[in-house]
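Please review this pair:
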Amino acid sequence: MSNFSENLKGLFQFIKSKTFVKNIGIAVVLLLVFVFTLQWWLGVTTNHNQKIQVPNLHKMSLTEVTQKLDELNLDFVVVDSANYNPEYPKKSIIEQDPEAGDFVKEKRKIYLTLNPSKYRDVVIPDLNGRTRRQATTHLRSIGFKVGKDVTWVHDIGKDVVRGLKHNGKKIEPGTKLPKQTTIDLILGDGNGY
């Protein structure tokens, strides 16, 4: 037990010594210098106070976007094409991330979504034998418009689909047409056999 008390007494004397206090002071000063140096270095390498406002790129072509973002030292990536939107020019920007007005740092990538040059093509389904209402609902659900120009054919089924037309020509199932195309129905008149 006396050995323990002597060691404890020696420890307290060392803590009270000038050497210990001097070493603690040096350690605190070095820690502060390290923290301030690290903070300064991070501020310089990450462009801490730099802010570039993202411009509004909507309805711009890729050529215009490239020029605009090069001036601001920003990069871009085209991530996707959306569904065709006739309110936007073909191959123009529909969406961007980050949004216009947000602040970013130099070399930040802006993610862009383009407007395709036309509506996406959709396969014409086989609607033969379906009712007018079923066919109309189905065609609209896949993106087509149903025209008011109905062609009636002599058939036993009233309002039963017997074919489809586009621009006055009969179209076969499996044909591809762009979305928003107007398709006219060929229906039975119910006066057959």
Observations:
- Residues 7 and 184 are 102 Å apart (CA to CA).
